[in-house]
Structure formats: structure tokens, C-alpha cells
Amino acid sequence: MGPLRPYDGRVTENPSSSLPRPASASPSVDADHGTRVASMFDGIAGRYDLMNAVMTWGQEPRLVRRTVERANIPAGARVLDLATGTGDLALEILRRHPDAQVVGADFAPEMMAVGKEREGGDRVEWVEADALDLPFADEEFDAVTHGYLLRNVADIPAALAEQFRVLRPGGWVAALETSPAPDNIIKPFSSFYIHRVMPRLARLIADRPEAYEYLSSSTQAFRSPEEVAGLFADAGFVDVGHELFMFGTLAVHWAMKPVV
Ligand SMILES: C[S@@+](CC[C@H](N)C(=O)[O-])C[C@H]1O[C@@H](n2cnc3c(N)ncnc32)[C@H](O)[C@@H]1O
After folding, report:
1. What is the pLDDT of residues 123-132, one digit of tens each?
2. Residue among 15, 21, 23, 13 at smallest CA distance from 210
3. Mutate to test the pocket of ligand 1, among 24, 52, 89, 149 (most ligand atoms within 8 A of CB)
């Protein structure tokens, strides 16, 4: 990635790129992975919000509200929303906590350019940053949130270590993530939806349907909620928990940085 800098709202030309592989379970870091993920999201920024609403069957606002609740944001908090994209979580934090200072950080500037134009977008501090190497001080934030970050990073433990570092002791992280369809009676239907319906919807709405084919494959390839909880615990977090939504295909995770 290029040098980190505060995001100034400038929209740049999309570099063309091949699509990334879904983040693997391997701890090794793929140096190109981040560049390709950022480029992919920049390429779909203008259609992202519509696609997101369609793919979550209109449930996204409820999931975002639940994630913000789980972050236990105190009065007057400084909050980091990582992988903020077009700012769904950042803007919800400000709606519920008007006294909060919210930093929205992402490495795809065109996603943030869309967010900046949304209502309340001028109250978010937008920062271009890689979640694997955050440009923030130790213990700078009272809470951290992120939506759909972990399945996109090449090194989940490194991402969680950075969150642990920038969070103050006693602060909470809350994350919205996709989850592999559980092995139950609805699995054939959810798999059909993820593999067949999602890419076709993408073809109707987005001009880069292959990007959503990547999203559906990364949804299936992503780790189970129990594994994600284990990774939070390995990073040093305590009081780790999660709840499932939409027949187990979406999860809200939460965890606290211990006080001592
Ligand atoms: C699916 S979008 C989610 C956006 C928003 N959080 C939401 O809930 O709608 C994933 C976002 O993660 C960002 N992202 C992925 N990996 C990242 C990384 N290593 N550092 C910063 N942003 C990252 C992408 O650029 C993209 O904007």
C-alpha cells in the first residue's frame, strides 16, 4: 500500500486489477492481496450500498444497529470504524452517540468518497489506512467497530493485534461478519442463494459482477463464528461472544480488551 495519509475526499481513477482470492486461513501475508482488495472495492464504490441492501435482504440497518450496540460506546468516546467503506457503521455510531468523535478508516478512497457525501458524512474523520498497519497511537480509541473486514484481510491475527493495540483497556470491539452457512436443513437454500442468486443479482445491479462472485466465494470460504471468537481470544481479548443472524449466515462478534 502507499503511504498513509488523512483522506481528503479526492476521487482517483480506478486502477484495473485482477480480483483477489478470498482471504485464506493461512497466517502468511500476501503482499498484493490488500492492493487488489482495495482496487476491487474502489471499482464498485458507487453501487456498493445498493448491492449491500439487496444481498442482506434489507436487514443491513438492523445488523449495523446491533453491532454498534455491542461496541458499548461510552459518552464522549473516540471511536474507530475500520474498513468503514461508505460509512454505514460510522454514521450509525454518530446517530446513536452524537457526542462521539468517529474516525472512519479504509484503504479504498472511493468507498469513503461515497460515504463523505452521505448525511452526516461531514462529521466523520475519514482516514486512508490499512487495517494491518494502523496510523494511530496505542490506546487511542474507546471502542473499535468493523463490518466485513476480517474475511478480506490476508492476516486476521495481525488485524486483531492492531485493534488490540489502538483500543484502551476496558474498551470493546464489535464486528459484523459473514459466516459460512451452517450445516442444517436450510444449507441447500443458503448455498444456492450465495452461489447462484448473489452473482446474478450483481450482474443486474453492478457493472463488475465478478467482484460479487468474489464476495460470495469469500462468504463461503470464511471461518466459522467459533473460529473467529478463538482468534479474538488469541489476540488477548476477553468476554468474547457472538450472535448469529439470517439463518446463521451473518454474525456480530464482540470482545473487550482486559483492564490489566
Ligand atoms: C464489504 S466492505 C464493508 C464496508 C462497511 N464496513 C460496511 O459494513 O458496509 C469491506 C471494506 O473493507 C475494506 N478493507 C478490506 N481490507 C482492508 C484493510 N486491510 N484495510 C483497510 N480497509 C480494508 C475495503 O476497502 C472495503 O471498503
Report:
1. 999 999 999 9
2. 21
3. 149
